[in-house]
């Protein structure tokens, strides 16, 4: 059985592993997709707000839409013309009772 997800806690990406380590230190458990999604939203907002002053909603919207891939959010690829987030999905499977990347 194969399935997809935008977040996989065992992903080899340094950005994912840094997030998981910080989350475990703070909360004592492995984060799930919702925790990763919340983290991603905050990281995107902080990235959009850094540098020039963003004083209007239109400025923030423009800057968010201009964001593209960055290492600490490896599953985020940017926004498309319809303003939908484009995500890189992991193809996963269950082997020996554990979730794993599909080969």
Say how many strands there are.
6
Ranges where pLDDT stays below 50 over 5 or more residues in a row are none
What's the domain count? 1
Shape: globular
Q: How would a crystallographer describe the biggest sheet?
A: 3 strands, antiparallel
From the 3D structure, determine the CATH topology: Rossmann fold
Strand content: 25-35%
Number of helices: 3
Describe, in plain words, how this protein is organized in 3D.
The termini are close together. The protein has 103 residues and is α+β, with helices and mostly antiparallel strands. The model has no long low-confidence stretch (mean pLDDT 88). It is built from 3 helices and 6 strands; from the N terminus they run βαααβββββ. β5 (90-95) and β6 (98-101) form a beta hairpin. The protein has one domain (2-101): Response regulator (Rossmann fold, 3-Layer(aba) Sandwich). The protein has a 3-stranded antiparallel beta sheet with strand order 1-5-6, with no helix packed on it.
Give a quick summary of the entry.
The protein is of the alpha+beta class and 103 residues long.
Descriptive keywords:
103 residues; alpha+beta; Rossmann fold; three-stranded antiparallel β-sheet; 40% helix
Indicate the topology:
Blueprint: E1 2-5, H1 14-27, H2 33-49, H3 57-66, E2 68-70, E3 73-79, E4 85-87, E5 90-95, E6 98-101
Antiparallel strand pairs: 1-5, 2-3, 3-4, 5-6
């Amino acid at each position: 059985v194969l399935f997809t997800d935008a977040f996989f806690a065992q992903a080899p990406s340094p950005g994912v592993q840094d997030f998981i380590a910080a989350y475990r230190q703070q909360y004592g458990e492995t984060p799930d997709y919702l925790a990763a999604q919340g983290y991603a939203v905050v990281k995107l907002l902080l990235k959009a707000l850094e540098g020039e002053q963003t004083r209007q909603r239109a400025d923030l919207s423009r800057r968010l839409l201009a964001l593209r891939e960055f290492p600490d959010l490896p599953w985020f690829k940017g926004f498309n013309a319809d303003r939908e987030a484009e995500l890189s999905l992991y193809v996963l499977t269950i082997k020996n009772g554990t979730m794993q990347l599909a080969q």
